[in-house]
Amino acid sequence: MFTAAAAAILVTMLLVLIRAIKGPTVYDRILAASNFGTLTVTLISVYGFLTGRPEFLDIAMVYALINFIGAIAVSKFVQFGGVQQPLGEDDAGDI
Amino acid sequence: MVLALDIVSWALIICGGVFAIIGGIGMIRLPDFFTRIHAAGVIETMGAGAIFAGLIIQAGWSMIAVKLVLMAIFMLFTNPTATHAIARAALGEGLIPLTDDEVEEDLSGYVLSDLDMLELEADSKETDPSKT
Fold first, then answer.
1. What is the pLDDT of residues A25-83, one digit of tens each?
2. Domain definitions of chain A by residue range
3. Hey, which of A40, B23, B56, B89 would disulfide with A75, CB 3.0 to 4.6 Å?
4. Which of B37, B47, B85 sits opposite A72 (nearest CB)?
5. A28 touches chain B (CB under 8 A)
6. Inter-chain contact A39–B43, Cβ cutoff 8 Å?
7. Which residues contact B111 (CB under 8 A, 6 or more apart)?
């Protein structure tokens, strides 16, 4: 049954990757990449249970942290042209 | 009791897989970026959330379950935040949401009030010299 869950996650990763490749705007690609990271975290967790080695959960936890930082950083980079906050605008630093 | 917990966890895991596939199909088929956010929410919240709930039941009372609960709570907080940041960046860059033509005039006042004000100012500047 973990195999079925892993297969479903892999199919979803394929569909999301298609959207990331052919997305018309850059925001589609960012959203698809963020989703792909979430699915990767889920797949690592399921794979740990599938092989009877739940120690993989530590790797999945680190990947979840990196995925969040990456999505925020890339969306700020696209909006402002840099990760630092722009000067002279009131609410431009908000995410 | 063990069998009942097994059945519940399998049902949750299968439910999460089905929701993930539905969200993936939505990512392909929905027409607009702002509608694709909805499919992304289905994948991140229901798909990953139900699979994590099933894995927590499978793990039982152990350190593994604690780690899974921590990851589930973290993802439940961070994924909507990341999606909100991406949507805000898209809206700030001027990506216009896809609306029906008949309801566009009603909706655009709420969705893009600043851009509408800019358009109105531009229109008034264009029409003022012709009037005077």
1. 888 999 999 999 999 999 999 999 989 887 888 999 999 889 888 888 888 888 777 66
2. 2-80
3. B89
4. B85
5. yes
6. yes
7. B97, B99
